[in-house]
Amino acid sequence: MQEVLTAADRGDDLRARVARLVMTPLFQNCVIGLILFNAITLGLETSASITAQIGGLLHVVDRIVLVLFTIEVALRIFAFRGRFFRDPWGIFDFLIVTIAWIPATGPLSVLRALRILRVLRLISVVPSMRLVVEAMLHALPGMGSIVMLMGLIFYVSAVMATKLFAEVSPDRFGSMGLSLYTLFQMMTLESWSEANVRPILPQMPYAWMFFVPFILIATFVMLNLFIGVIVDSIQTLRKQRDAELPETIEAEARQREMEETSHALLDEIRALRREVAALRETQAASPPER
Description:
The protein is mostly helical. The chain folds into 2 domains: 2-125, Voltage-gated potassium channels. Chain C (Four Helix Bundle (Hemerythrin (Met), subunit A)), CATH 1.20.120; 126-290, Helix Hairpins, CATH 1.10.287.70.
């Protein structure tokens, strides 16, 4: 029984040490550097000349980096156990590394392109990037109304554009689908005037009265609405984290105090066990009394 307890104590102590290791800034910076290095090597593989010269070396480096990523995730799973899979970012890292181990041969050769997904792990490692992604996900409910409003504006505008300009520009506004695609192109401000509006103006001089308001509403107003929702979400998350920071610091302090206390108790128990074992050895070695 004592040997089982000792093994369990050693396992908990090792798990705590690994947890402290993976949470250190030095370890996190090493992971960031490894991700950036892997991004560079994967980018070099897109060059035919470089691949012809050092393609074998790049493949070996890619395998080594993948093994290091796997070890890093395994250490986190060992340290945090179930808590690792309760963290969405932990699941994200686990899936990214798992996908990289899928054989990319034969019909699955297309999966080789998915290796670049490992670079996305930078999002889970860098706190500021993680905050932006969490803010975007947090803002999705608020974006729903904006998306519905934009869809309504696009539908009404596409119907109007098809009715007004189908005969003048059938290749761009000849049908509902063409009008929707052309209006989306105009929303991105890609050649909206030269390619879409100016060819219509000679035959319909007042066509600008439709296109200019559409550009102002679809591009500038809607874009600012999206940005406003995301910025508000980022500020809200920051306020929540700032409010939770003192509680987190206090909880971490209590956790450290409990760990120190538990380590001290374990040391005392081990010392007592050694003393008991020594007493038993002494009694066993002493001659029996007559």
